[in-house]
């Protein structure tokens, strides 16, 4: 039973590191206060990152970062890379492309503030195939109650590689969508009516980005050739405004060694989105980290090397799909005049028609940023 609880907790840690939905299994005290390490080296020049924390009881889960660690990554060619802490428990270093080569192996060594030494096995950076294509099909999906079908679009990925490419992959999927506030800011009332001249439309268009909360892994080992068609990714329903104006999907593909793949695939297999949290007996997921100072104390997590391929697509005006998302703007007609606006609602934005106050508006009607997005257009967004 203890092993079962360990693996479920590891899944929760990986979810924090890679934006996958968090688990809340019961973890005994014996499984807490262990070290948790998760990080990687990729073939992409730039900052490489590692997170270090303590495991906690997930009845009341907390993220307890470990600050003040000495973190070094080395390769099998004798190169050493020193990491620095930029957020509590989060460490990074910039590595030039010349040191990030296919076939090179990397390992991590950590010394905690208490003097505990943690080390990983070497993990080789494999060559990965490029993503051939990412696309969608209009599909209807049965809901859990089997009464009303969910209409939407299902995303797929095609992969075509060579015999020299890795046969093991994991994917992260990030969505960005445009959404609108319907009205400009024209006036507000705080016991007096103030006109905004000229009217302000700078917060009528926003963009929001989120990671898809699922784990995607793919093995080509049992296939006759290094390719896969129609690998299913996320499904977007028609009851969301994600598809109303413009929607973008970014897929990041990580080519893995066999052991790194097995670790992430076991995490996926124990994900309750796939089979239910307690519908099957999970296998023990063992990482590649050891506590050198105290070998009997397990270290949770994984450190791996990977080559990366990305593909981004944009979607507008999906055919044969009627959107039914709720209106996020609530208006209140000024039946009794401005003074009838409750003091608790002031200052309140006012909709002006033909120069006269017409309705009180909730903030979301004129300011799209209150819904969690940004009105700064992403650099990759089409005109």
* Overall tally of domains: 3
Treating each run of at least 4 consecutive H or I residues as one helix, how many helices?
A: 3
Largest sheet: 10 strands, mixed
- Average pLDDT works out at 88
- SS elements, strand count: 24
Large-scale geometry:
globular
Cα-based radius of gyration, to the nearest Å: 25 Å
Q: What fraction of residues sit in β-strands?
A: 35-45%
- List low-confidence stretches: 1-29, 272-283
Order of helices and strands: HEEEEEEEEEEEEEEEEEEEHHEEEEE
The share of residues in helices is under 10%
**Distance between the amino and carboxyl termini:** 55 Å
User: Which structural class should the secondary elements be placed in?
Assistant: mainly beta
Task: Tell me about this structure.
With 383 residues, this protein is mostly beta strands. It has three domains: 2-128 and 255-306, no CATH class; 131-179 and 207-248; 187-204 and 322-371, no CATH class. The chain contains three helices and 24 strands. The chain has helices at residues 2-18, 258-269, 272-275; strands spanning 35-42, 46-54, 64-65, 70-75, 80-82, 84-87, 90-95, 105-111, 117-120, 123-124, 131-141, 150-160, 168-180, 185-189, 193-200, 205-211, 216-219, 227-237, 247-255, 289-291, 300-315, 331-333, 348-353, 356-361. Residues 1-29 and 272-283 have low confidence and may be disordered.
Describe the structure concisely.
This protein has 383 residues and is mostly beta strands.
Q: Could you name the key traits of this structure?
A:
24 strands, 383 residues, 10-stranded mixed beta sheet, mainly beta, 3 domains
């Amino acid at each position: 039973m203890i092993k079962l609880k360990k693996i479920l907790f590891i899944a929760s840690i990986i979810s924090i590191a890679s934006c996958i939905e968090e688990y809340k299994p019961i973890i005994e005290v014996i499984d807490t206060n262990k070290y948790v390490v998760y990080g990687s080296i990729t073939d992409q020049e730039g900052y490489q990152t590692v997170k270090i924390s303590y495991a906690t009881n997930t009845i009341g889960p907390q993220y307890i970062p470990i600050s003040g660690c000495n973190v070094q990554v080395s390769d099998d060619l004798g190169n050493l890379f020193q990491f620095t802490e930029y957020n509590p428990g989060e460490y990074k270093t910039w590595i030039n492309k010349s040191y990030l080569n296919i076939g090179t192996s990397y390992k991590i060594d950590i010394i905690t503030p208490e003097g505990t030494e943690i080390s990983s096995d070497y993990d080789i950076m494999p060559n990965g195939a490029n993503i051939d294509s990412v696309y969608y099909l209009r599909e209807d999906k049965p809901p859990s109650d089997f009464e009303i079908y969910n209409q939407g679009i299902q995303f797929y990925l095609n992969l075509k590689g060579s015999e020299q490419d890795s046969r093991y992959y994991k994917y992260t999927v990030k969505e960005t969508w445009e959404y609108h506030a319907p009205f400009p800011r024209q006036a507000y009332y705080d016991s007096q009516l103030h006109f905004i001249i000229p009217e302000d439309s700078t917060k009528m268009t926003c963009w929001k980005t989120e990671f898809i909360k699922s784990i995607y892994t793919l093995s080509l080992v049992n296939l006759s050739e290094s390719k896969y068609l129609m690998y299913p990714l996320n499904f977007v329903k028609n009851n969301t405004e994600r598809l109303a104006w413009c929607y973008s999907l970014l897929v990041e593909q990580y080519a893995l060694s066999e052991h790194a793949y097995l670790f992430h695939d076991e995490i996926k297999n124990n994900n309750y989105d796939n089979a239910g949290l307690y519908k099957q007996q999970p296998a023990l997921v063992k990482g590649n980290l050891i506590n050198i100072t105290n070998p009997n104390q397990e270290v949770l997590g994984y450190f791996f090397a990977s080559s990366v391929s990305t593909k981004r697509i944009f979607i507008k005006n999906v055919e044969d799909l009627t959107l039914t998302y709720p209106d996020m703007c609530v208006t209140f007609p000024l039946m009794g005049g401005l003074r009838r606006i409750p003091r608790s609602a002031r200052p309140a934005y006012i909709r002006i028609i033909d120069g006269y106050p017409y309705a009180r508006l909730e903030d979301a009607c004129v300011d799209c940023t209150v819904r969690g997005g940004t009105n700064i257009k992403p650099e990759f967004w089409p005109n």
